[in-house]
Write a structure and sequence with these properties.
By secondary structure, the chain is an all-beta fold. Helices cover about 0% and strands about 50% of the residues. A 5-stranded antiparallel sheet has the order 1-3-30-29-28, with no helix packed on it.
């Protein structure tokens, strides 16, 4: 299935951005209809692309080898899987609902015990002995969760007192180094780890912030919004933020170049963000399904995944699209 993406204009605050060159067409990466919800796609350096997701009661993995995708066998039943991070093909991590943490050694996946049963939404690490996991069910005080792995054991890290009220879940974590780690979550929450302590930041947004990515200490992008999309940018010293209405809420962001971010979200949103101006170019929705994660691999392919997330019926349809990355993306 080919989906032509001649980009139409959608910008925040009524501003116009220069019309960009047409990007390559999106095509179906694989038939994910029966794969369950696909929450995230990623690959370690030189490794194969992996999608994580499944059903609420049964998590699942799919991996690309050459051009073919196939389910990955799991040795035990796990709930929905939400995010992944890897250092190499034989050192990959996945987190999911109900305190689920999986480790893949290149041969098999095994469940690792961690000191929480909270839903876990994000994972990132600067090195195998410096992993951070975030989560929380988001229902009551104390749900917001920070976990750290030092290469030997997992520990719960106390959430610092926050001036922002009712932050009961953290959704994603990303960093550029051991002493430069960012966490985003409910009610516009943003935390920064400097290697010694967590500090609360205020980015000018009160919406839930769902994902964070960057290219270094002075270039970080945060996206979110449950109805309309919002975005914030860190330049190493200050935050700039913008509401992107009428662009729908955003769930995922990925960057290779400091000036460009790829964002995805609800109602089939696929868009390119100009990081300097915080303006977006996006195509009118060609699917009503939700994109939740986006990632560019070493081969130069951009892959976006999602599904009919939030469907009330026992119906878990997946979504996986791909296109080549442009030279300046």
């Amino acid at each position: 299935m080919a989906v032509a993406l001649g980009l139409a204009l959608a910008t925040g605050c009524g501003e116009s951005a220069p019309t960009p060159p047409l990007v390559p067409s999106w095509t179906e990466a694989f038939d994910a209809t029966d794969a369950g919800w696909l929450m995230n796609v990623s690959a370690p350096p030189g490794g194969a692309l992996l999608t994580v997701g499944g059903r609420l009661d049964q998590g699942g993995l799919h991996q690309r080898q050459a051009r073919d995708w196939a389910p990955v066998p799991l040795t035990e039943s796990v709930p929905l899987l939400n995010w992944s991070h890897g250092f190499a093909e034989d050192d990959r991590w996945v987190v999911g609902n109900a305190g689920t943490v999986l480790h893949g050694d290149g041969v098999r996946w095994r469940r690792v015990e961690v000191p929480t049963d909270q839903d876990l939404w994000g994972i990132w690490g600067a090195a195998p002995d410096a992993l951070w996991v975030v989560g929380g069910r988001g229902r009551q005080a104390g749900d917001a969760t920070l976990l750290h792995y030092d290469g030997r054991e997992w520990t719960v890290v106390a959430v610092p007192p926050l001036r922002r009220e009712r932050v009961d879940a953290f959704y994603k974590v990303w960093g550029s180094a051991r002493d430069d780690v960012w966490v985003v979550g409910q009610k516009g929450a943003v935390l920064h780890w400097d290697g010694a302590a967590w500090t609360e930041h205020f980015v000018g947004l009160g919406d839930d912030l769902i994902c964070v990515w960057g290219t270094g200490r002075d270039r970080v992008v945060v996206v979110g919004g449950r109805s309309n999309g919002v975005v914030a940018r860190w330049n190493g010293q200050t935050w700039d933020s913008r509401e992107l209405a009428p662009l729908p809420g955003l769930n995922g962001v990925w960057m290779r170049a400091p000036e460009v971010a790829h964002v995805v979200g609800i109602e089939g949103t696929l868009a390119v963000l100009d990081v300097d101006t915080l303006t977006v170019q996006s195509e009118p929705a060609t699917t009503r399904l939700t994109f939740h994660g986006v990632f560019g691999d070493a081969s130069g392919q951009l892959t976006a995944v999602g599904g009919n997330l939030g469907a009330l019926a026992d119906d878990y349809r997946g979504l996986a699209w791909t296109r080549p990355l442009g030279p300046h993306e």
